[in-house]
Write a structure and sequence with these properties.
26% of the residues lie in helices and 23% in strands. By secondary structure, the chain is α+β, with helices and mostly antiparallel strands. Strand 8 and strand 9 form a beta hairpin. The longest helix has 20 residues. The chain is globular and about 75 Å long.
Length: 764
C-alpha cells in the first residue's frame, strides 16, 4: 500500500480543511487509523475519540462472539456505536432511508436473513479517518455519515438525499466483543422534545460470570426537529412514542423528510451515573464549541496533536513515521475515562462516588503492561499514570482492593497476577506520586491476603495466594504453574515499595518470596515445569506444550522473570541462555515473531518459540543486554519493529494488541528504550536498543519533571547501520546498555554512533 493511500487521515484532513502537504504535516497527520484493523480487537477500530475517551464512536460490522466491532475487509457497516470498551458496549445509531428494517443481524452472520436489516454496504474509497474523525458513504441509504467526539460525547453529521422518509435509529442491543455475555436487562427511551431524546440501558456484560453490571445513560440532541419518534421492543413497534420501556432488543427511530444534501447533526452525551450527568457532560464539553461538528473535530484533533507532539521524530523514512505515530496513538486509544466532568463515577458496588482529584480510568488487564505501556505513559504523559494510581486507590478505599482490569470500574479478575501493582510502585519510584504510604497499604494487601470473589462481582486480588505461599509455588492440583511467576513478580514489586517505606522486615520477606520462581525451574531441563503438591515434576514435560500455562508455553515462560534477569542468566547458564535464545529468534524470524506451529515427527504437538504477539515474550530481545551480547538486543529489536509491525490494515500487529501494549513496545523500541522490571526498582532503568530515527525529542511535562526535553540522537543511522558503536549520555561514555530513568526526566541527550557490524566493546 502506498504511503498516501494508506493514510486515511489525508481524506479526513481534506474534509476538515486541514493542509496535507508533507512539509506542513504535524504528528497527528501521520496517524493511520486503518492500520491493523483487520482481525483486530473491538476497541481498536477507526473510531472518533479523544485520548482515553469514554466515547469511541465509529463503525461496527461484525458480530462474532469474540471479536465484534470493526473488520476492515468487510465492505459494510451495521451501525455506529459509542462504547467500544473491553466487554462493554452501548448506544448504536444509524441513518437510514431504505425500506424500514429494525432487526439488524451482523453483516458477517452465517444465519439466514443476514442480508436483512438496517445495515448498509459502503463505498470503501469514501471511508476516511483521522484522530477524532471518521466518515463513510452508506451506499444502500445514500447517506454520508461523519462523526467526531470528545471524552464523554459524540457528534454525528448525516448528509441525507431527498426522501419523504429518512430516519435516525438508536439501537440499545447489538453485537459486541464477548457478545454472549452482553444483555440489556432494562431500558427506557423518553421523548423530551422534538429535538431531544434521553434514556438509559441497564446492561450486564462480561464473559464467564457476567460480572460487569452498568447502566449507560444518554442524552441525544438533534439539530432539526423530527416529525415523529417511533420505537420497538422485541419486534413490537410503537408509533409516536413519548416513552418506551423494556428489555432485550429495544430501540427508537426519529423520522424526517429531507431535501437533497440536507445535513442533520446529532449530539450525544453519555454517563454511567445518571441522565443529569450525561447532560452535564454534554453541556461542559460541547457548549463551549457551540455544538458545532467542525469545531468539535478540530478541537479533538488539536488535543491529539498536543499529546502526540510531545515526541518529535526526525528521519527520512515516512513509513517509519506513520508506524511510530500510529502506534503512539493506539497507546492512548484503547482504555477509557469512566468518571464524569465533575468527578462523579459509579464504583463496583454500584454506589455513586466523586473523585476529588484526577480521573477514573478503566480497561482490560495490566497483564505485563510494564512492557512497555506503563513506561511510555510515564515518560510522555505522567498525568495518565497519576490518574491510574488515583483510580486504584479509589477502588481500594471504597471497594476493598486494587484491580487488575477495571472494565467499567468493576473487578473482572482477568489474567494472572495483580500487575497494576507495578504501575503503582513505578509511579512512586519515578516521583509521579508522593503518597507512598497509601500506595503501600493498598498493594501490600494483594500479596498478603488471598484473592476473593468480590461481592460486587468478579474476582479481586491473587486467588489461592495462601497455596502459593505454603508450597513456594503453585501446585498443578490448584492452578497453572505460570501463576508462580506472576505472583513472584508481584512480591518483588511490593518488596521495593516496602524498602522505600522503611518496612525492612516485610521487604526482606517478600523479596525472598519473589525468588519462588526458582522453585519451578527443573534442575536439569532449566525450564519452568509443573510440580504437584508432593514436589514431583511433570513426567510428560514438553517445553512447547501450553499445559499449565496461560497464553504461552514453558519455552516462552522460562524467560519471564522481570525482576531477576541476572539471576535467571545464572540459573540457566550464560552459554545455554544465549544459545537457546538465539535459536528461538532464528527459528521465529521467518514467522514475524508471532505464534507459529511446526509439525514434529510425531505429528502430535507443535513448537512455539518467540511469540511477540502475546505479552510474556515481549522482553526477549532485551535479555541479551544481561547476557553479554547487547548487539543482539539491537539486532532483534530492529527485526521485530520491521517485520512484526506493519503499515497496512492487514498487517499492523501479528497478535493480540491488548489496548496499546504492543503499540507501546514499538514506540519505546523505536526510541531505543525498554523497561525490563517495570520501573519498580529504587533507581528505575531503561534498557537501550536500536532507535529508528536520526533524532527523537521528548518534551517533558514540567508539572512532574525538572527537565524540559530529552533527546536521543543517532549518527550514521540506517536500516543497515543498526548496531551501536559508541554511546554517550550527556557527553559521557556509557559503560552498560542502560540509563537511569531520572536521566531522562532531568533532561539531556543520549548520542548513539551507529554502524553496520556489532561492536562488542561499545559499552566497555
Amino acid at each position: 500500500m502506498k504511503l498516501l493511500k494508506s493514510l486515511g487521515v489525508v481524506l479526513g484532513s481534506v474534509a476538515l480543511g486541514i493542509p496535507t502537504a508533507l512539509a506542513e504535516w504535524q504528528p497527528v497527520d501521520y496517524v493511520d487509523l486503518f492500520i491493523g484493523t483487520s482481525n483486530s480487537r473491538w476497541m481498536l477500530g477507526p473510531y472518533a475519540q479523544a485520548p482515553f475517551g469514554m466515547v469511541q464512536l465509529g463503525p461496527d460490522n461484525q458480530g462474532d462472539v469474540w471479536m465484534g466491532g470493526y473488520e476492515y475487509s468487510i465492505n459494510n457497516v451495521s451501525g455506529f456505536s459509542h462504547i467500544h470498551a473491553w466487554t462493554m458496549g452501548g448506544l448504536m445509531m444509524m441513518p437510514t432511508t431504505a425500506d424500514l428494517a429494525l432487526s439488524n443481524p451482523s453483516t458477517d452472520s452465517p444465519y439466514q436473513g443476514a442480508n436483512a436489516g438496517y445495515h448498509s454496504r459502503i463505498l470503501k474509497e469514501s471511508e476516511q479517518a483521522s484522530p477524532g474523525y471518521y466518515s463513510v458513504f452508506l451506499y444502500d441509504h445514500q447517506v454520508r455519515a461523519e462523526m467526531t467526539a470528545t471524552t464523554h460525547c459524540g457528534v454525528q453529521r448525516y448528509t441525507f438525499p431527498k426522501r419523504r422518509e429518512s430516519r435516525i435509529l438508536m439501537d440499545l442491543l447489538f453485537p459486541t466483543e464477548w457478545d454472549y455475555g452482553f444483555r440489556v436487562q432494562d431500558a427506557r427511551i423518553v421523548r423530551v422534545s422534538p429535538t431531544e431524546v434521553e434514556g438509559y440501558a441497564d446492561c450486564q456484560s462480561g464473559p464467564w460470570s457476567s460480572w460487569n453490571h452498568y447502566k449507560l445513560h444518554f442524552e441525544a440532541r438533534f439539530s432539526k426537529p423530527f416529525k415523529q419518534l417511533n420505537g420497538w421492543n422485541e419486534g413490537r413497534v410503537s408509533e409516536n412514542i413519548d416513552e418506551l420501556r423494556g428489555e432485550g432488543d429495544i430501540g427508537a427511530y426519529a423520522i424526517y423528510e429531507t431535501e437533497a444534501d440536507e445535513q442533520i447533526v446529532v449530539c450525544t452525551g453519555l454517563s454511567l451515573v445518571s441522565i443529569e450527568q450525561a447532560r452535564l457532560n454534554m453541556e461542559t464539553e460541547l457548549r463551549p464549541l457551540g455544538y458545532d461538528f467542525d469545531r468539535v473535530a478540530a478541537h479533538t484533533r488539536d488535543e491529539w496533536n498536543e499529546l502526540l507532539g510531545r515526541v518529535e521524530v526526525e528521519g527520512t523514512d515516512e513509513t517509519d513515521k506513520v508506524k511510530f505515530y500510529t502506534n503512539l496513538y493506539r497507546a492512548y486509544a484503547g482504555k477509557q475515562t469512566w468518571s464524569d466532568v465533575n468527578g462523579q463515577y459509579v464504583d463496583a458496588m454500584e454506589c455513586v462516588r466523586t473523585v476529588e482529584r484526577g480521573k477514573m480510568y478503566g480497561g482490560d488487564a495490566f497483564w505485563n503492561s510494564y512492557w512497555n505501556l506503563n513506561g511510555l505513559w510515564s515518560i510522555v504523559s505522567p498525568e495518565i499514570v497519576d490518574n491510574w494510581v488515583t483510580t486504584q486507590l479509589e477502588m481500594f478505599r471504597y471497594t476493598g482492593w486494587t484491580c487488575k482490569g477495571p472494565a467499567g470500574l468493576e473487578y473482572s479478575g482477568i489474567m494472572e497476577g495483580s500487575h497494576e501493582t507495578a504501575l503503582m510502585v513505578a509511579a512512586y519510584q519515578k516521583g509521579i506520586r508522593k503518597d507512598g504510604e497509601e500506595i503501600y497499604r493498598a498493594i501490600r494487601k494483594t500479596v498478603t491476603e488471598p484473592g476473593i470473589n468480590h461481592p460486587g462481582g468478579g474476582v479481586a486480588g491473587n486467588p489461592q495466594l495462601d497455596v502459593y505461599d505454603r508450597y513456594g509455588y503453585m501446585p498443578r492440583e490448584y492452578g497453572v504453574v505460570s501463576k508462580t511467576l506472576d505472583y513472584a513478580y508481584d512480591d518483588w514489586c511490593v518488596a521495593q515499595m516496602a524498602w522505600a517505606m522503611g518496612d525492612r522486615k516485610e521487604a526482606k520477606r517478600l523479596e525472598t518470596r519473589s525468588m519462588n520462581y526458582r522453585n519451578v525451574f527443573h534442575p536439569e531441563y532449566k525450564y519452568v515445569v509443573r510440580r504437584d503438591t508432593t514436589g514431583g515434576w511433570d513426567a510428560d514435560f514438553d517445553c512447547f506444550s501450553n499445559a499449565g500455562f496461560i497464553e504461552g508455553n514453558s519455552w516462552q515462560y522460562s524467560w519471564y522473570v522481570p525482576h531477576d534477569i541476572p539471576g535467571l542468566v545464572g540459573l540457566i547458564g550464560v552459554e545455554e541462555f544465549n544459545r537457546r535464545l538465539e535459536e528461538g529468534f532464528e527459528k521465529s524470524a521467518e514467522f514475524r515473531f508471532a505464534a507459529h506451529l511446526f509439525d514434529r515427527t510425531s505429528g502430535q504437538s507443535g513448537e512455539f518459540y518467540i511469540n511477540h504477539g502475546n505479552e510474556v515474550n515481549m522482553c526477549t530481545p532485551y535479555l541479551f543486554n544481561y547476557s553479554g551480547k547487547p548487539w543482539l538486543a539491537q539486532k532483534w529489536a530492529r527485526a521485530i519493529m520491521e517485520s512484526f509491525y506493519g503499515s497496512t490494515p492487514y498487517h499492523g500487529w501479528e497478535g493480540d494488541e491488548d489496548e496499546g501494549q504492543m503499540s507501546a513496545w514499538y514506540v519505546m523500541s523505536a526510541m531505543g528504550f525498554f523497561e525490563m522490571d517495570g520501573g519498580c526498582s529504587a533507581d528505575p532503568m531503561l534498557e537501550i536498543g536500536s532507535p529508528l530515527f536520526d533524532r527523537i525529542t521528548i518534551r517533558l511535562d514540567p508539572n512532574y519533571y525538572s527537565g524540559r526535553t530529552f533527546t536521543i540522537r543517532t549518527e550514521n543511522n540506517s536500516a543497515g547501520n543498526l548496531y551501536i558503536q559508541r554511546a554517550l549520555l550527556n557527553g559521557k561514555p556509557l559503560r552498560e546498555p542502560r540509563i537511569p530513568f531520572r536521566s531522562v526526566t532531568a533532561g539531556g541527550e543520549l548520542v548513539l554512533e551507529m554502524g553496520p557490524a556489532p561492536a562488542e566493546s561499545c559499552f566497555r
